[in-house]
Amino acid sequence: MKDEIDIAFCASDNFEKVAAVAAMSVMENTKSPLCFHIFFTSSYTDDAIAMDFWVRMAESRGHRAQFIRCEAKTLMFGRLPNGWHWNRTHFLKLGIAEWAPDLNRVLYLDADVIANGDVAELWNMDLGGRPLGARYVKEEGGNPAHFNSGVMLMDCDAWRQRRVMDAVVDIARRNNPGDFKLYCADQTPLNQYFGNDYVDIGPAYNAMPLLEQISENAKIIHFCGDFDRTPWKERDSDAAQLWWEYCEKTPFKKFFDGTYQTWLKYRGQVSYNGLKLPEGL
Ligand SMILES: [Mn+2]
């Protein structure tokens, strides 16, 4: 379909359910037909059920969704750092252009976002020949100026031509030999690679409660930061309330009400396809 908007999510270990809330918010706010591409790894046994629910959720509203399993693909990355609040799944986004060769352009969204407006305007943004659109964040609190990698409009043709995946994985591996030096997983090596070679999409398309008061004009809200303050754990803000309104409309509402506590208990104890990997792998 020609006017279809391609959206990519990356998920592991139940985050496809978090991404479903993001997808619901995009569907509720966007007029164009959507195709969701979910790149994922999982340790859980209800994958098939969750995927089926997810795909039916999209198709019942006239959209499409497909899952791309990435366990073997991420092994190609080799040794990558694990941090206190991320794992190898954070690097999945680097492979989107390579692993979905039919995509010319894709809007990548972290699972921890919700749309609060139509994403078509962002989707159609002119990148002026640059490979990436992302939100510029100014220097603050010891963090250098950078772009946030939670919402990225990617020119996939450019990413493939430049072999961005290999280059960024290489930077991550060289700079960070299995320790915690990266302040933010994929984001630091992506910034090191792209420098200023991207288009600033502006704060409305990646509004972060961590950084600012969220206004009504925010088109995409990004609940980045402390895991304990994510909306599925804390319902203490208008933005978090909005997240729950979209969650109610997904097939995963009960998961967040009940199973979630179990998930929290075991989260971190099982990693990567059920195997406990050595530190730093
Ligand atoms: Mn995020």
Q: What characteristics describe this protein?
A:
alpha/beta; 9 strands; seven-stranded mixed sheet; single chain; 18% strand; two-stranded antiparallel sheet; 281 residues; binds manganese (II) ion; disordered C terminus; Spore Coat Polysaccharide Biosynthesis Protein SpsA, Chain A
Detailed description of the structure:
By secondary structure, this protein is an alpha/beta fold. The protein is globular and about 40 Å long. The protein has helices at about 15-30, 45-60, 70-75, 95-100, 120-125, 155-160, 165-175, 185-195, 240-250, 255-265; strands at about 5-10, 35-40, 65-70, 105-110, 115, 130-135, 145-155, 200, 220. The strands form two sheets. A seven-stranded mixed beta sheet has the order 3-2-1-4-7-6-8, sandwiched between helices. Strands 5-9 form a two-stranded antiparallel sheet. The longest helix has 15 residues, at about 15-30. The protein starts with a strand and ends in a 15-residue tail after the last helix. The model is unreliable at about 270-280 (pLDDT under 50). It has a single domain (about 5-265), classed as Spore Coat Polysaccharide Biosynthesis Protein SpsA, Chain A. Helices cover about 35% and strands about 20% of the residues. Helix 1 (about 15-30) crosses helix 9 (about 240-250). Helix 1 (about 15-30) links the parallel strand 1 (about 5-10) and strand 2 (about 35-40). Manganese (II) ion (MN) binds near residues 110, 112 and 150.
